[in-house]
Specification:
Elements lengths: L2 H7 L5 H8 L3 H10 L4 H20 L5 H8 L4 H12 L3 H7 L4
Length: 102
């Protein structure tokens, strides 16, 4: 995993940590993200969902969703499930069916 993306998996990681990590003032980052029509939360969630998809594809639900959610940086299974569904328009199981992995 890319070290820059790993920081987004840490559940304690927040916008202030992100600003410090990339060494830019908060307001500059917020202005840029606004111009790009995105947010810190969107970026964080996209990276976490991407990580979850990789785990799902590699393990084909060998692990339960609580484990996958924790490994992907989500605080809870329900949070993971709802965000995954928001970004992928399907549940984790449906995602694997669509990929013909289960």
């Amino acid at each position: 995993m890319n070290k820059k993306k790993d920081v987004f998996i840490n559940t304690d990681y927040n916008f202030r940590d992100f600003a410090t990590f990339i060494n830019f003032p908060d307001h500059v980052i917020r202005d840029y993200l606004k111009l790009e029509n995105t947010s810190f939360t969107d970026i964080k969630n996209e990276i976490r969902v991407s990580r979850a998809k990789k785990i799902l594809e590699e393990t084909k639900l060998k692990y339960n969703l609580s484990y996958i959610s924790k490994q992907s940086g989500f605080n809870s299974k329900s949070n993971f499930y709802s965000i995954f569904k928001k970004y992928e328009k399907c549940t984790p199981r449906e995602y694997l069916y669509k990929k013909k992995l289960i």
